[in-house]
Design a protein that fits this description.
Elements lengths: L10 E4 L28 E5 L12 E5 L18 H10 L13 H10 L2 E3 L3 H7 L15 E3 L8 H10 L15 E4 L14 H7 L8 E4 L2 E7 L10 E6 L5 E4 L5 E3 L2 H11 L2 E2 L1 H6 L6 E2 L14 E6 L16 H12 L14 E5 L1 H22 L15 H19 L7 E5 L4 E3 L1 E2 L7 E3 L10 E3 L7 H13 L6 H5 L2 E4 L3 H4 L2 H10 L35 E3 L14 H19 L1
Helix pairs in contact: 1-10, 2-15, 9-10, 9-11, 11-14
Length: about 600
């Protein structure tokens, strides 16, 4: 965590993984650009339980294992959510959190977005060629976490941008300042000179280790659980740790407090092994119940969505190279030399994507269809039937139901009813496919301890589409985005829509089947499994990120989010970390 050098106590960070070089999403020696290619740092790969509502298919998702977590292996897409997302966090915690000192609305977290990253302006020649825009008022940090625009784009990148503009999509100068309904240039987590991945393992450990003698890192060790030798009011707890080298188990004692930062999958797992969580889950695992906290491992959310695909029936009339050029030995050799240059240049400076479309449901579906969807959401609350779409394991818990109903109400009022709150993301860099991210799903899943093998990876139940209103929104998204094929740009390029077409798109049942066939269950943004919500709404931590009822224990990672933002999670993770650091420093001081 940043800036702990201001504290006299020693900070010990216990990491499952180890320090690794973390290649970018497209670094040598790769010669084929692939938008879904993960980085090569160590990861966990999860296959979820089957999703009954989507043809019993499992979700595949990975999480970073190296020091720096998923920042060492993500797609390097470095965006922020809209102001409405973070205002929704405050809304769903109201009125219980209204008087709390620590606030989490947009105006409260925006300064930490600015502080947490150093943005590098691109050279004038690159700006002139590609048309990048930005607003320095959205930035201002001096941390060793960098974001920048690549000095290279594929030749067909402009086709989708031109097509969206022809549909009337607003072109935004900057999307990191809270307004995010339109076409966005997205910086990537990359050093502006070397074009190497910028990640937490470098920026918050390797680059600062020598100047912080009170910062110790213990790698290749698994946190088994936290344990209270006396009672929950006499913290901080001890930490039980297992060496991955020799399986030796020992305890670490903390003087000030223990901070869990193991992510949306492993933080609830550690708490479950500690006897903290839903009583039924803890007892099923044969673990003595220490604290009945129903929200632990629940409220699981991730971005998912279908895709639309096409091909071009004639060669594209573009001047810059296409990814297929990497198969040419001469071009590939030049690309490698460009990557070694200072500053770096060429295709190897690219990540997964650096542009995206964000639009609201109201814009895409229209007023009448949006009104119908909002009526369905509100009817779930007023009729008391919202709980029927929740996991069976917590339908009987009134706090979990209250929390879910509060989330539905917030999403209806703060997100889906507003023209400037995006409900979809479509990122791209090149190619003949558009992936449609559902940014605010209504379905909720679970993360559970593997009760037969508690030290192994948890069991994920995505439950994608368990709330059928999600499919109503998917259908509206697909129908709108198919309009891209009617634009002059795509007509001139002779884009030929594949697998879909008007006959399917105009038939609800056929289109629903198409959505299920093309569904990506995880865009690798898991969150919300130890949510910052009031205790009477199924919360696990308060605005100070302290675990309810467990003295000296705090959580700082993406599990604390109450709702998914309209963004990839890395920039939010850094902002949460910076804000948490201020909260903790103030408390320790």
């Amino acid at each position: 965590m940043p800036r702990f050098s201001h504290i006299s106590e020693t900070v010990l960070v216990i990491e499952y993984g180890q320090i690794e070089y973390a290649p970018g999403i497209f670094d040598p020696p790769a010669t084929v650009w692939a938008g879904a290619q993960p980085g090569l740092a160590s990861t966990w790969l999860f296959s979820s339980l089957p999703n009954p509502e989507v043809k019993n298919k499992p979700a595949l998702v990975f999480a970073g294992k190296a020091v720096g977590g998923s920042s060492t292996s993500n797609g390097m897409f470095f965006d922020r959510g809209s102001r409405f997302d973070y205002d929704a966090w405050a809304d769903v915690g109201s009125p219980e959190f209204d008087s709390h000192h620590d606030k989490w609305s947009w105006k409260d977290i925006f300064p930490y977005f600015k502080k947490s990253v150093t943005f590098a302006e691109p050279p004038a020649s690159v700006v002139h060629k590609y048309g990048y825009t930005w607003d320095l008022a959205a930035f201002g940090g001096t941390t060793p976490i960098y974001s920048s625009f690549p000095p290279f784009l594929w030749g067909d990148h402009s086709l989708m941008r031109n097509a969206w503009e022809e549909l009337g999509v607003p072109v935004l100068k900057e999307c990191a300042g809270g307004d995010k309904a339109g076409l966005c240039w997205i910086p990537i987590s990359e050093h502006p000179i070397t074009a190497r991945r910028s990640h937490a393992g470098l920026g918050h450990y390797a680059d600062v280790n020598e100047t912080r003698p009170n910062y110790d890192l213990l790698v290749r060790h698994q946190v088994i659980r936290v344990a209270y030798p006396h009672d929950l009011k006499r913290g901080p707890p001890m930490v039980e740790v297992r060496s991955l080298a020799d399986n030796r188990i020992f305890n670490v004692t903390a003087k000030a407090e223990v901070i869990l930062s193991a992510g949306a999958f492993h933080t609830p797992t550690v708490l479950h092994r500690s006897g903290i969580g839903p009583a039924s889950v803890i007892r099923e695992a044969g673990i003595p119940l220490v604290l009945d906290l129903p929200g632990v491992g629940n409220n699981f959310q991730d971005h998912s969505g279908p895709s639309i695909t096409w091909n071009y029936t004639t060669p594209l009339n573009v001047t810059d190279p296409l990814p297929i050029a990497m198969l040419n030995a001469t071009f590939a050799a030049e690309a490698l030399e460009g990557f070694k240059s200072i500053p770096a240049r060429g295709p190897y400076t690219l990540s997964q994507s650096n542009s995206a479309l964000y639009l609201s449901l109201l814009t895409m579906a229209g007023a009448n269809a949006t009104k119908t969807i909002l009526h369905k959401i509100r009817t779930l609350i007023s009729s008391g039937t919202a709980s029927s779409f929740l996991p069976q394991s917590y339908r009987s818990d009134p706090t979990m139901i209250a929390g879910y109903e509060a989330q539905l109400s917030t999403l209806a009022r703060k997100i889906y009813s507003r023209c400037s709150a995006p409900s979809i993301e479509v990122p791209w860099a090149t190619g003949t496919a558009a992936r449609l991210f559902l940014l605010h799903p209504l379905s909720r899943g679970t993360v559970r301890l593997n009760s037969t093998h508690p030290l192994e990876q948890p069991i994920l139940d995505y439950r994608t589409g368990s709330n059928p209103i999600d499919f109503d929104i998917h259908l509206a998204h697909v129908r709108y985005l198919r309009r891209i094929f009617t634009t002059p740009t795509m007509i001139t390029a002779q884009a030929n829509e594949l697998a879909l077409g008007e006959a399917i798109a105009s038939d609800d049942a056929a289109l629903l089947n198409y959505v299920k066939d093309t569904m990506t269950f995880s865009f690798m943004h898991p969150c919300c499994t130890a949510a910052m919500l009031p205790l009477n709404k199924g919360g696990v931590v308060g605005p100070d990120l302290k675990v309810f009822g467990a003295e000296g224990l705090r959580v700082v990672d993406m599990s604390i989010l109450p709702l998914l933002p309209s963004s990839h999670l890395s920039a939010t993770a850094y902002a949460v970390g910076e804000k948490a650091a201020d909260i903790i420093i103030r408390a320790w001081s």
